Model the fold of this input.
Amino acid sequence: MKISVITVAYNSGATIVDTVESVLGQTHAEIEYIVIDGGSTDDTLAKLQPYRERIAVLVSEPDGGMYDAMNKGIAQSTGDVVAILNSDDVYADSEILSQVARVYEETGADCVYGDLHYVAYEDLSQIVRNWQSGPIPKNRFIGGWHPPHPSFFVRRSLYERLGDFQLNLKIAADYEWMLRAVQRHACSVAYLPKVLVKMRVGGASNRSLRNVASANRECLRAWRMNGYGLAVGLRATISKPLGKLKQLRSRVGQNG
Done:
């Protein structure tokens, strides 16, 4: 099974090497690595040069934001499965892609997802928040549940069938796409119960209270875009923060 891993980057010189090495260090035999850079002005491209022969596609040009870059990467991909790992994230260990491929082979699922650790920017071993997804609930996204996008793997054929990320959403287009696939179209999913990705704190959706508010508004829009009424969207959007509180408690219990 060929897995296409897409990394989108912009002025990511401080973290891009960690990301690249976590992908190229995977034991899985069939990896297509795609890097879509938004025209960085720092040393991102220089940091990528030692790995250039092992990067199947490297594009550096201005884009319309991270979701536009993701769409470009998906268009370039040729794998059976597509993974998106941003330029400040890393895979938790070298066996992740092999284990994801095994779950696909055993289940035939459309999507495979797992758990995620938010970690300190300067210390990837320091857990800030433990996102333990758990098996998909019966009501799927309505109760506020959703998987972490960096730990969400998708068959490429599903992007061809359901379309790309919506560029009119600036923070929550990943949430909308998962909602579209898992909730609206009831695509089959399989849960791999382990931490797949370590994600540095400070992502676009949680960088500030303003961004958190904007993300919640976009999540509500995502429900409306997929044909659900206001009441259902509000229930899901209001329930999402409760799951985050459980994750923080889990982290305290784990490190305490």
